[in-house]
Amino acid sequence: MSEILCQWLNQEVKVSQTVSPKSFAKAFSSGYLIGEVLHKFELQDDFSKFTESRVSSSKLNNFSRLEPTLHLLGVQFDQNVAHNIITEKPGAATKLLYQLYTVLQKKRKSGLTGLEMQTMQPLTNIRLQNMKSEAFRDRLRNLIPRQTDFNLMRVTHRFQEKYKHMKEDFVQMHFEKLENFQKLKEEQRCFNIEKQRLSRRRQNEIMAKIQAAIIQIPKPASNRTLKALEAQKMMKKKKEAEDVANEIKKFEALIKKDLQAKESASKTSLDTAGQTTADLLNTYSDDDYIKKIQKRLEEDAFAREQREKRRRRLLMDQLIAHEAQEEAYREEQLINRLMRQSQQERRIAVQLMHVRHEKEVLWQNRIFREKQYEERRLKDFQDALDREAALAKLAKIDSEEQALREKEVHEQIAVERAQARYQKHYSMCAEILDQILDLSTKVADYRMLTNNLIPHKLMRDWKELFFNGKPIYDQASIKHLSAKPSVEQLIELEKRDFLDSNDYDDYKNMVGEWALPEEMVDSLPPSNNCILGHVIRRLVEKSLPPQVESAEPELPSFAIKGCLLGKTFSGKTTAVKFLQKDFPIQILSIDTLVQEAIQAFHDNEKITEALPIQNEPEEKASLVLQEKAKESQDLQNVFSAAPFPLETLTETEDKTMLSAETNKTPKSEEVKSSDSFSELTVRAQLGAKSEQLLKKGKSISDMLLVSIMVNAINQIPLDQGWVLDGFPMTLNQAKLLEEALTGYDRNLIELEEKKKQISTLAVDPTASKEVPPPPSAFDFVMLLDISDNSSLDRMNDIMAEALSSETPREDINQRVAAKNQDMDEDQNLRDQIHHRIVGFLDNWPLLEQWYTEPENILIKINAEVDKESLCQKVKEMFMTEIMKKENKVKKKLEEKEAEKKEVSLTEPSSPAAPPPPPPEPEREKEIHPQQERSKTPAKGKPPSESPHGKQESSQEGKGKKGEASLKRKGSKGKSAGGKVPVKKSPAESTNTSPTPVGPPPPKPGSEEWVYVDEPIAEEIPSFLVPYWELIESSYIDSIKKVLRHLREDRHTVLAYLYDIRTGFQQFLRRPDHKQNFVSQWQTDFNSLPDDLWDDEETKAELHQRLNDLRDRLWDICDAQKEEAEQERLDIINESWLQDSMGITMNHFFSLMQAELNRFQDTKRLLQDYYRGMECKIPTDDNKKFTRVPLVQLCTKDVLECQLRIPLVPRISISLDLAMSKSKSRALLKDKIDYTLENVELNFEADEKLVIDTWQQASSAISHMVTAEIHQRLMEEEKENQSADAKDKSPQMSANKKVKNEPPKKKKEDKKAKGKSPPTAEASPVILTVEEMAEMEKRNKLRLKIKEEHLAALQFEEIATQFRLELIKTKALAFLEELVLKAVDVYKLMEKWLGERYLKEMASVEKLTEVARYHIETSTKIQNELYLNQEDFFINGDVKVFPDPPPPIRPPPVEKEENGTLTIEQLDNLREQFLEIAPKGIIGNKAFADILLDLVTLNLGTNNIPSSWMHLTQAELQELTSLLVVNSEFVDWRKFLLVTSLPWPIPLEEELLKTLQRFKAVDDEQLGTVTFKQYMQAGLWFKGDEDVKIPENPLEPLPFNRQEHLIEFFFRLFADYEKNPPQLDYTQMLLYFACHPDAVEGVYRALSVAIGTHVFQPIETPNLITEKTSFLTDMSPIAESPEPEENVISEEREVREEKGEEIPENANTEKISMETLLRVFRGGNEAQDPNRFSSQLKMENIYAENFIKVFQDLDAKNLEAIEVAVLLKHPFIQDLISSYSDYRIPDIKMILQRSEHVQGSDGERSPSRLTEEKK
Prior knowledge:
Blueprint: H1 2-13, H2 24-27, H3 32-40, H4 56-73, H5 79-86, H6 92-110, H7 114-120, H8 123-143, H9 147-213, H10 224-284, H11 287-450, H12 456-467, H13 487-509, H14 518-521, H15 530-543, E1 561-566, H16 572-582, E2 585-589, H17 590-602, H18 616-631, H19 633-640, H20 647-659, H21 668-678, H22 682-695, H23 702-714, E3 721-725, H24 731-742, H25 746-757, E4 780-785, H26 788-804, H27 812-852, E5 858-862, H28 867-909, H29 920-933, H30 947-953, H31 955-970, H32 986-989, H33 1019-1068, H34 1074-1086, H35 1096-1132, H36 1136-1173, E6 1190-1192, H37 1198-1202, E7 1207-1209, H38 1215-1220, H39 1234-1286, H40 1292-1300, H41 1316-1319, H42 1329-1417, E8 1423-1428, E9 1431-1439, H43 1463-1476, E10 1481-1483, H44 1484-1496, H45 1513-1522, E11 1524-1525, E12 1529-1531, H46 1532-1539, H47 1548-1561, E13 1568-1569, H48 1571-1577, H49 1601-1613, E14 1614-1615, E15 1622-1624, H50 1625-1632, H51 1638-1650, H52 1684-1700, E16 1710-1711, H53 1713-1719, H54 1732-1752, E17 1761-1762, H55 1763-1767, H56 1770-1778, H57 1788-1794, H58 1801-1813
Parallel strand pairs: 1-3, 1-4, 2-3, 4-5, 6-7
Antiparallel strand pairs: 8-9, 10-12, 11-12, 13-15, 14-15, 16-17
Helix pairs in contact: 3-4, 4-8, 5-8, 9-11, 10-11, 11-12, 11-26, 11-33, 13-33, 15-33, 16-28, 17-22, 17-23, 18-23, 18-24, 20-21, 22-23, 23-24, 26-27, 31-33, 33-35, 33-36, 33-42, 34-35, 35-42, 36-39, 36-42, 39-42, 43-46, 43-49, 44-45, 47-48, 50-51, 51-53
């Protein structure tokens, strides 16, 4: 099957790659051939995107493109098939190709194309197929690994193979080592065997010598053995006898000892028991018996002694016999030994000598071995010392290199930080510069818009934006904001809010645009309503919960607190340890504390083990930290991650431990774990959390570190100081530590101060107290300042000291382990040093700002000094800080003592003043029945009641009051206001009350005034505070919105005025058709015939035509003027100005409305507050808010608008009415312009409308104040009437007092209505004296409340009236400014119109004058007359008729001079010679005949110069002889080269440079160039550049002969048989190598042929004997002729100079046989066939001679040889001296002789030649 497929693919389909069955799977693994097959069948259109590479990306691309086509054909193909093909699975590609083969055969039969098959499928299948293709592509991408993975696998496989080979090599090496070792062992064993064999051999030899020395002694008799046996028996018996004797002696000694002991005991016992025995004897008296016993004992002892004597005697006899036997045996042995002594002595002597020799050898060997051991030990010791020294040196070098690397890394980090800092500063400067550019361009734009009159407000806004870093230009549009605005829109919103805030500040403070006019400065009211501010502050305080102030300790501590900060290795720890020695302070290091905390957790430190008493600051700090942890989510997550079963449990247990509050009871298991955890100390718990974080690889959080540090600080006694070592390290740690130690959060304090600084409408001046700055946690902060390089140097020094101070350890394992540990520590330190330095540099600026801003406690010390100096500095600073702390504490104690004294002085005087008794108990009793009867909310509570009780009791009341307040806020209405002049309210008239004689009473709101602070109901602040906030926000927002619209309208006005100015200017510059009439008139004027120019009638006709043209142009100007005036009237009559003024008035009316709303809301708030203080129910005001009417701008939707805001129609003045009125305003300062009078009248109407609206608003405020006072009076009258009806006789005096006061002071009668408790009583009660006094106090309080209320209301009225008047004044000024701007623009437009009309008329007059001048002078107007709007000029660039053409200059012609052939004559001669002898060689006779024919037949042909006509035949033959080569031939190219003189003869250097240029342009190095390349390379001379152009245009240009000569030389030497013609530049330069000196010419030719300079040997004799004159310059210009001898002598001098300067390596170039034959004309062929044989013979002679020369010079194979060697050969020297082909012949001599010219002309030419050469 595969063979069939291969045949089909290779023969029928003809794929690009030949497929064979063996390479079938590999060939189709990339998918490229499958795509090619489908492309052959026109199914794969994107085959150009297939790649033949075998990388994975190419395969994925190919199969992804194949998949849709294969599915279209119906071939089963998925990612598995593709993967099998890619991985070259056997049979996969064959199966796919077979299916493809069958399908393609069917397709061929059906005749369908791929596009048709695709269109036949339904659309759903196509979409499904596309989705399948995408899924196939994704799955195939997952199946096929990336090419990088393939490469990695290949590299891995390669390295695995390499590893296997290395392993095999290692095994082989190991096996070889084993074999070598076995071999060595075998050799050693063989050596030992041989050594043993030799030693045995030597021993055998010694034994043989011993045996030889033995004397044979006859053996003794046979009884020798029996005697020996008997002797042994005797010896044995003797030994036994001796043993028995010894035992007997021992036994006797023992007996003697026993006897002695018994005797001594008996003696002692007899003395003691004598009496007893005597008694007993006496008792029994048995003497006989005792005597018998004694006698028997004595007999026994005597028998024993006798036995012993007999035994001893027997033993003595045996011993004597034994000694005699032994003596006989000794004598026998002595005889035997004496008989054997000589033989044994000789044997023993030999053996002793042998043993002595062995001992000597052993001794020498042992000494030698000991010496070796000693040397080995010394060598090992020395090696160890050297090795240690080398290791120490290497370690030192490594440490130095590491230090250098660390410094480089640090410098790189420093450079990066500097670069980052530079980039930051650069970006800041770039941003500032961009803003400066924006400001400049903005100013430039508005200078153009406002005609260099930019408003001050705009400039101030731009400056504010610039100073605050806001963009001046708009970044985005904020008209339609989306839910998520972009960054640009957010910036625009910030910018808008910023400008709004600035405008509102100006409006509030009445500065800038809202500055007071001069007439209003004197009547400026106070800026703040103190009563309203007091009310608002009291309401806010009532609504907020009470704040617990932190109690400071009464007795401050003298203990000093501080910290030492600095970089790593700055000396912090050393300094604090030094301080600890001299001062009783505690040193706290965070590293040590963390380790101790973790160790405490490991030791399971319980609470009982820790300190039993925990002071209050510890609990306080823990609470602060716990609250902080609750606020921070991240820190909460860190704390919650504890190594216990439930994370939340540990967190709750921490909270219960610290705050002692639990909300849930845990389960039993949780209780056990929590109890075990809670039993631990705080330090152990913190250590547990720290350890868990460290185990997870995280860093300990700042909160945890601060908790550990605070816990350690709290363990220190209060009277002992402490210093922190290197803590805090970051700003966050400093903030947390200060908050934990002091309880103050500086950020919260700053936020509260910012909130206080926010502008409010009313401020209480008595409540503004300056908050003292929070105390710092430290008394001092010391910074040990050190540079980065010093820190690195100290680290390196410490490491070097540690390395040098290492003691040598005996155990190598301990040494290695310790060294590795030290290396790890050093490496960690090296790795961390840069991070530490960078971290310190990043955090220190923030820390420095933190410790210097509120109170500068930072002390900087230069730590780049030695240890003692640093410690001394730190000690001095520490002592200074201790003194400061003591002085500060003493000062505080003195202040407290002074305060105590003042309090003690004021206490005796205080009881004298009766305090105002608060009637809370009675009021409480009165309020309870009130609550029961009328279901109204509670009115007030005593101040001693807890806030929780307040909240619980006021929940129901809040809801009702909230609804009521919302209804009151939503109610709006329209108050009818008339034009009432501003007068003082009646309250002001009753402001003075009769007072007793003395100082006047304080006014409400002044500093002496005591505000009424009666208790109010709890629900009143709950709805009045939000109501006031709503008042403030709505007032500020409405003001800001109006001011924003005014600001934007200002930009709109400027842009509109600029647009109408520029539009009118463009309208004035609109094109006209005056130029067409002028051009037509000029064309008609210039078209007049020439004969009519001087005719008078014609001139008159021309004048008439000019008048008609002028009138027509004037009509055009008048028409344009009328159109411009109409355009100006249309602009003036537009409704833009009225609309702008209407919008502006509406904005100012909105400001009035905002002030009016604020007044009404403030009035309502004061009314509710004071009624609540009087315990009255707040009235529900049904009146709607007063609305300021707005100007109606359009007539659409009037009814809908009137439903909300009243509208006032605009009074528009008609034009007729304006014309009828004759009064004028100050706006129109010039003459009266009736077009602008309508504008003036409209402005007056708008001004009147503004004044009317202001009066209406002002009167509405006055009416509201009057109504409020009237309401107060009415309420007082009602209360008085009810009181008169109910009160009895005991109350008459008080009622009279109250009734007599209202006619004098009506204010005091107004407060009787608010008190509900008196009216709440059901039955009249007889009042006592105390009750009457209480009633009198209440009346006074009511009067004071009324006075304070009305004073606040009147202050608000005055401020609002003043604001309204200011708004009115600014509105009138704004409208007047707007009208003035518009009028100025209208006047400017009129001015432009008049000036343009006058200029146009003047330009027409100028045109008329110019035309009349040309008419009178009868001249045509060639230049165009240009009349463009108001400009007239004569355009010199445009001519209406052309100038006459200039004369044509004739071509240059060459003239004959001094017999020199012209270029044309040279070309003619070249063509004639080329036809006769194309190769360049011609016979001398034929050449002479040709010259003779030319001379004789030249008449009329001009082929040769006229001076040649006088040449005779003899002279021609002489000329031919000068050019003869080898006496038979003439080179006609050389003849033409000589006759073409003069041209600059080149120097040898110039020839070589020209050759190099030709070789450079000859890219193929063929030796020939084309004409283009020839001109590109150039010769050593160029054409004449200083050719003078004649001034006369009819005179021809001078002929450039040198330029034509360059082209002629190409034609002379080129081969025209080739197309294009080719020039052999080497052959041409050989012709130019000719020289007057033939030898010099040969050397020049050799230099040209070789390509380098050939030096002429010094010793070479000059063999030229004939000197002929030479013509170098045939020009007649030569004035100073020079003899030829001088030229030759100069050339010799130059040659001698060159010869003296010949370098050592001169003429080392090699020259070949071909080059030599080419120089000496060895390769030229004769043109004449009759001469061919002789020429061939000559060539053979040269070739044979050169072959001999080469063979003589050891070049037998004719290879190239050096030039210096060749020049030394005598044949070459003779050939050079006699070769004359390179000599330039002097043909000038023959011509001069023929012309009979004598003398010096021929001698002058060589000097000319040398001059040209120079």
